[in-house]
Amino acid sequence: MVIDIKDRVKNVDLQGKIVTAYDAAQLINPNDKVGISGFTPSGYAKVVPLALAERMEKEPFKIDLWTGASVGDEADGALTRANGINRRFPYQTNKDMRKALNSGDVKYIDMHLSTMAQNIRYGFFGDLDVAIIEVCQINEDGSLVPTTSVGNSPTFVSQAKKVIVEVNVSQPLSLVGMHDIYEPLDPPHRKPIPLEQSGDRIGTEAIPCDPSKIIAVVPSDVPDTTRPLAAIDDDAKAMSQHLIKFFEQEIAEGRLPKNLLPLQSGVGSVANAVISGLAQGPFTDLSIYTEVIQDGMFDLIDAGKVTVCSGTALSPSPDGLKRFYANIDEYRKKIILRPQEISNNPGIARRIGVIAMNTAIEFDIFGNVNSTHIMGSKMMNGVGGSGDFARSAYLTIFCTNSVAKNGDISSIVPYVSHVDHPEHDTMIFCTEQGVADCRGLSPVERARLIIEKCAHPDYKPMLTEYLEKALAATKNAHTPMLLDEALSWHKRFTETGSMKK
């Protein structure tokens, strides 16, 4: 099928560069560093990566792949199966990619998402050879209108030697005007980012691009392949209710205004469920300053409880994406999509007082959080933006179910098997069991509260036994730890299939 995109390519000279995905894939060389648009499976380049993977099957070679965060299977999956990726960062969720990086076939660098764009501009990773960017329109001046995410695309475009543009006709032109593109200057010339409220617009509606850098324009009609979200279960509802009560108490104590402060929520089913639960809560006139906009955010907007929703990507379920497209003219009044170094900027998070709500694989009794590694070694997805917000938020909240694997794993352990967020960056913990507010508490006080409020009843006695034994053995040390037992729960699980004794 021939896709006519000339009405979306407003620059007449660039209409002469319209080629097939096959032809564009020939312009990428072995060992190139390639940056593609996309943040979660939204707004990511699709047809050129697929054509590149097909070429790699016939002509084996590898590239380094840079993105905003995770991308769809047309990129991560297809290129991994073609054995075409040498180095990958900063975040992924693809099962084939996960297998490859945990077997050593792909060199993976897990990064705080707010730092990647500036590190590229600083030259820390070498020169970027090619950028592949999905857009819904190319303007007369060559500037690029992104689709359902912004991510690192502005920096990929500004720093790449060559730019390939995928014009996706499945993405509606109603997206035009939803973006706010701002790329900071670098030290020693950096200025304060002039954003003081979630709804402030500080940039342009399209990504600036010198038309001479664009070497190919490729038609596409492949929609975003977004991930389904798990149903909101009783545990998730309980966590939402716990947090609603916590927020109400903070308002009563004068530590939060009645409309809270700007909300940030991480990626995934638990985070989405917690946000969705707020739609049933008493809070109104909410603002959102986050990285991903999931179904729960649409629930809040539909309930009339949100004044503005700022992020870098739409990351809804398949049904949520249909819902967005069906009501895009209303959602566009509330939603702003920004580059991830702005949406995840720690300075802005601290300035506007973000309430950060992120998920954990596990946390320990002292408040250290593991967001990335299963049993300490196997990378799950990556740290994502949680660290960007955790250290700088007004309130930092980590949520997880108290147990996993039908109760054979406790999500609260004596010591985490991998540390992404140290105790210094954490405040509040929430499971379906309750909320532990650890602000102002010493390590031992934290431990007693986390065990009391967050641990599953099956594991409370075991955690208490460990803590008391550690206190006795270390003579009430500041952070009592039994070096030979701290990771024994993980060891027991790997050997027996359960953390229970």
Short description:
The protein is α/β, with parallel strands linked by helices and 501 residues long. It has 18 helices and 25 strands.
Mean pLDDT across every amino acid position: 96
Main sheet makeup: 8 strands, mixed
Could you give the distance between the termini? Answer: 61 Å
Q: Give me the count of strands.
A: 25
Question: Gyration radius, to the nearest Å?
Answer: 23 Å
| Uncertain stretches | none
Shape: globular
Strand percentage lies at 15-25%
- What share of the residues lie within helices? 25-40%
What structural class do you assign from the helix and strand content? alpha/beta
Q: How many helices?
A: 18
Descriptive account of the structure:
The chain is built from 18 helices and 25 strands. Helices cover about 30% and strands about 20% of the residues. The protein is globular. The protein is α/β, with parallel strands linked by helices and about 500 residues long. The mean pLDDT is about 95. Helix 3 runs parallel beside helix 4 (about 75-80). It starts with 11 loop residues before the first helix and ends in a 5-residue tail after the last helix.
